[in-house]
Each structure stands twice: as structure tokens, then as C-alpha cells.
């Protein structure tokens, strides 16, 4: 059976109580009836990509607990996916609700896919970083389509949220 919504906001606007909304309401010690209008009007976001199969959803926004986000990822200095995954799981064990994958070296997709297969926290990325790696070109040579294609790839991989760097230089 196909879902009648694409986002948690759309579900809330249609009056559909999703499992994610129920879980977030319980975690926040709210009723579903209190949470739904906040999600519907955009005061609360529930980043929950359907391709992130092991996600334990969290809410972010007005009237909710502050969430802990941990930045990490593969780089020239740490190329070992297993070491980074150990850091991820340690962060989860210590209470992190979100992981920001700042991978900036090599083939980043396997690590990103491993995150969305094994990590229950919300996963975020910075697609502009990965665009340069993915296309192996300077930032100022990338097109809007190139960038959107990388955002789409991250979504297909199960990423729950992205950071958009909009304050770039005139050259780029």
C-alpha cells in the first residue's frame, strides 16, 4: 500500500498520525494532538527519510528538547570507515540524536550508506562538500544541476537532512 504523504509535515497537515509522529510525541512527553499542529505549521520538523531503515525519529524545533548533533566523517586524516563508525556508535551510546557526516575525502557514498543502514540517529550531510568530491572538479565549475543531483543522491542514500551553504564567494 502506497503512503498518502511524502513528508511528516504533509502527513500532519492531512491529519495522518505517522509512527514517527507517535514516537516523537512519546519522547517529548507530548500528546500526538499537541505535536501534530506544530509539525503541520513547520514549527517542528521530523527529519525521517524513508530510505533510512533503522531510524529512531526525533523532532527538532519549537517546544522540544535540545538535540545533540555530532560532526564526523572520512577525511584525508581518517580514511577508515570502521573507525568512523566506532565514533558514530560511541556518540549514539553517549546520547547523540543526530550525526552530521562531513566526509570530505575519497568515495563518500559507502560510508553514508553504512550510516543509514546501521545508525539510528538522524543523518545529515553537507552536499556542497560532496559535490566537489563526486565530480572531482573545482566548486566554481559545478552547475546547479550538478549540485541538485548530489542532493538527490544523498536523499536516495537515506540522509534525513542537509546543510546548505549559501554564502559562497563571487567566484563560485
Would you write up a description of this structure?
40% of the residues lie in helices and 10% in strands. With 172 residues, it is α/β, with parallel strands linked by helices. The protein has two domains: 8-46, no CATH class; 69-162, Alpha-Beta Barrel (TIM Barrel). Helix 2 crosses helix 3 and helix 6 packs across helix 7 (144-156).
In short:
This protein has 172 residues and is of the alpha/beta class. It contains 7 helices and 6 strands; from the N terminus they run H-H-H-E-E-E-H-E-H-E-H-H-E.
CATH class of the largest domain: Alpha Beta
User: How would a textbook summarize the main sheet?
Assistant: 4 strands, parallel
Q: Give the strand order of the largest sheet, numbering strands 1, 2, ... along the chain.
A: 3-4-5-6
Give the SSE order as H and E letters.
HHHEEEHEHEHHE
Task: Set down the secondary structure blueprint.
Elements: H1 8-13, H2 19-27, H3 32-40, E1 44-45, E2 60-61, E3 69-72, H4 81-93, E4 98-101, H5 109-118, E5 122-125, H6 127-135, H7 144-156, E6 161-162
Parallel strand pairs: 3-4, 4-5, 5-6
Antiparallel strand pairs: 1-2
Amino acid at each position: 500500500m502506497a503512503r498518502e504523504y511524502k513528508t511528516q509535515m504533509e502527513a500532519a497537515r492531512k491529519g495522518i498520525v505517522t509512527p514517527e509522529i507517535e514516537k516523537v510525541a512519546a519522547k517529548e512527553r507530548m500528546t500526538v494532538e499537541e505535536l501534530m499542529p506544530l509539525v503541520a505549521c513547520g514549527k517542528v520538523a521530523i527529519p525521517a527519510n524513508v530510505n533510512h531503515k533503522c531510524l529512531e525519529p526525533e523532532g527538532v524545533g519549537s517546544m522540544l528538547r535540545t538535540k545533540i548533533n555530532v560532526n564526523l566523517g572520512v577525511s584525508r586524516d581518517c580514511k577508515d570507515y570502521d573507525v568512523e563508525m566506532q565514533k558514530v556508535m560511541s556518540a549514539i551510546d553517549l546520547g547523540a540524536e543526530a550525526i552530521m557526516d562531513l566526509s570530505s575525502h575519497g568515495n563518500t557514498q559507502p560510508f553514508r550508506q553504512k550510516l543509514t543502514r546501521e545508525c539510528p540517529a538522524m543523518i545529515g550531510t553537507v552536499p556542497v562538500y560532496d559535490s566537489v568530491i563526486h565530480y572531482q572538479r573545482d566548486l566554481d565549475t559545478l552547475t546547479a544541476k550538478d549540485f541538485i543531483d548530489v542532493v538527490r543522491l544523498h536523499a536516495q542514500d537515506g540522509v534525513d537532512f542537509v546543510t546548505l551553504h549559501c554564502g559562497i564567494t563571487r567566484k563560485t
